[in-house]
Design goal:
- The protein is about 35% helix and about 25% strand.
- It is of the alpha+beta class.
- The chain starts with 5 loop residues before the first helix and ends with a helix.
- The mean pLDDT is about 95.
Length: about 575
């Protein structure tokens, strides 16, 4: 059975009382919202006559009850505004129930209400809605965290990252500035889509459930189709299907795809992520570099009105042209070592000398990738193209037109992380088969991220794919940079989380053994402390005030706690 806090019990009782009064706490009818808080605040002073009959709706985030007149603060999806309630305006007849009982006693922080009235300016100069009527739209059954601010100081802020990511709905309510990153992310995607549509490319959809995973070096998620009795995989990339469409005659296709990789989680990685892949016939990787520069520069301008973007302590400038290094040039630039002629044994020895973590399953390409990742990537703060990769690293890219052992591939790196990957796509089916067979051998050596051999994709290539440039650009990573976000979880509404820990309820005896007097155990539970392990995360001053406040509220005939007693529980 769900254990309810005192506040949750009170609010459920309020629902019953409202219902008994004939008031539906969760009405079905639509509410005629005509105005937004941000519009009122921005435009009222320009023409007050336009705001003499407004209808707003939102959540109560603050309230000050003062007898026959009160103030509340309402938050909608674009801001907050003060609302003035006067008893005789809300209840013009002798019956004052709607104000004295419903408004004063039955409304709580977090409730959603609709308000009709007019806008005016208080003597303190604050733009305010004068309420003439209000409607309960949703009764909140859980109390909001109350963030208190005074003299530029904040108390009790809802800032714990795990709680914020796990309860994003609550994060968005009490930290409304968080919305800005997600609004910018949507603008980023729309700007990219508009750019590609202007070029005449077709947005398409390809399968998420695939009989074979391919198009990237990654470990997949696996599932089972009951009717077909077959194993399917969540896609790790949509590359091979988009290339099939190029074979079929579409000369420019792109897709914003949800991809899934069964790999580690970090502030730069989420198992479910978004990327945009683009394939254009009769183009090469140099053309694609120019396209990426132009598109990302436009995104920066759309989001910030400038090509310069603040990211942490750095100002990153996306103005074209970007710096360009071959991969071997970058490694030599940052390590002083030329590895361009090295074979696998010498590369392994060089990696060990440089302190780069490696293992026996890594082939030549993987060793070069690890050296670059460990010794170069972090230094690339301004947007930089790294191009001309070793063939062993890129089984889907075309061999270099003039340099043996290399392929025509580039990655764009920014703020120390890859944001996109692109090729002159391999369209020679014989060479493609050979390289995928080499990937199979790497898999036999224990490389869990090696690619599989897709016979249907090879069959499509055998019908002939025109010379093609392909691009995959990580939307989440790019959004992190464009919104100055520290973690990928800050640009995902609902990032993947570990299972939530269940609350353990300690016995009375356990609390008493910890030093809590028996008469205070139930008070602690009312306060929301369920076990002694939770003490270490509590603020002693706040717990001291909360418990003594509950003692008064519950009218308990026990001596008030001393701060030293509470500190002893926490420090034990």
């Amino acid at each position: 059975m769900m254990e309810l806090s005192e506040q949750e019990q009170i609010r459920r009782q309020t629902v019953k009382e409202l219902t008994a009064m004939g008031i539906d706490p969760f009405p079905a009818a639509s509410y005629p919202v005509s105005d937004k808080t941000c519009d009122i605040l921005e435009n009222f002073e320009k023409d007050p006559s336009q705001y003499q009959n407004v209808n707003i709706a939102g959540r109560i985030v603050n309230r000050r009850i003062m007898g026959a007149a009160s103030f509340v603060e309402i938050q909608d999806d674009c801001g907050r505004i003060q609302v003035y309630f006067k008893r005789d305006d809300i209840c013009p007849t002798e019956d004052k129930t709607w104000y004295n009982t419903v408004f004063k006693k039955h409304l709580d922080l977090g409730d959603i209400i609709g308000i009709s009235g007019y806008v005016f300016k208080t003597q303190m100069g604050e733009i305010t809605v004068h309420a003439q009527n209000f409607t309960i739209l949703t009764k909140s059954l859980r109390p909001l965290p109350i963030v208190r601010e005074k003299d530029d100081k904040t108390w009790d802020a809802f800032t714990d990252p795990e709680q914020r990511y796990r309860m994003r709905y609550l994060d968005l309510i009490v930290n409304p500035h968080v919305k800005e990153a997600f609004i910018k992310r949507t603008k980023l995607v729309n700007t990219m889509r508009d750019y590609l549509n202007e070029k005449g490319y077709l947005e398409v959809e390809t399968p998420i459930l695939q009989p074979l995973y391919g198009g990237a070096a990654a470990r997949p998620f696996k599932t089972h189709h009951n009717t077909l009795d077959m194993t399917l995989y969540l896609r790790i990339a949509n590359e091979l299907y988009l290339k099939r469409l190029v074979v079929g005659g579409f000369e420019g296709v792109y897709e914003f795809s949800k991809d899934f990789r069964n790999e580690g989680m970090s502030r730069f990685h989420n198992p479910e992520f978004t990327q945009m892949e683009l394939y254009v016939a009769y183009k090469d990787y140099f053309w694609m570099m120019d396209t990426v520069e132009e598109m990302v520069e436009r995104i920066a301008m759309a989001l910030h009105g400038s090509t310069q973007v603040q990211v942490g302590e750095n100002i990153i400038d996306f103005k074209r042209p970007w710096k360009r290094y071959t991969m071997f040039e970058a490694i030599e630039h940052f390590t002083g070592i030329d590895i361009s002629e090295m074979e696998e044994p010498e590369l392994r020895e060089t990696a060990q000398k440089l302190g780069v973590p490696i293992d026996d399953s890594m082939g030549k390409g993987k060793l070069i990738d690890e050296i670059f990742g460990e010794k170069c990537e972090a230094h690339l703060i301004q947007p930089t193209f790294i191009y001309d990769y070793p063939v062993e690293m890129s089984p889907l890219a075309k061999k270099h037109r003039s340099r043996e052992g290399l392929v025509e591939r580039f990655e764009a790196v920014c703020n120390g992380k890859e944001i996109c990957n692109a090729y002159s796509e391999l369209n020679d089916p014989i060479d493609q088969r050979k390289r995928l067979e080499e990937q199979l051998e790497l898999g036999k050596r224990g490389d869990e991220e090696s690619m599989v051999l897709d016979e249907d994709f090879l069959r499509a290539l055998e019908y002939g794919m025109p010379p093609t440039a392909g691009l995959g650009i990580g939307i989440d990573r790019l959004a992190m940079i464009m919104t100055n976000s520290h973690s990928i979880q800050d640009v995902l509404f609902f990032p993947q989380m570990r299972p939530e820990k269940k609350v353990v309820n300690d016995s009375d005896e356990t609390f008493i053994e910890h030093g809590v007097p028996a008469q205070w155990v139930e008070v602690l539970r009312k306060r929301g402390v369920h076990n002694v392990a939770e003490f270490k995360d509590l603020n002693p001053n706040k717990l001291f005030n909360d418990l003594n406040g509950l003692r008064k509220k519950m009218k308990l005939d026990i001596a008030a706690l001393k701060l030293e007693e509470v500190q002893a529980w926490i420090e034990k």
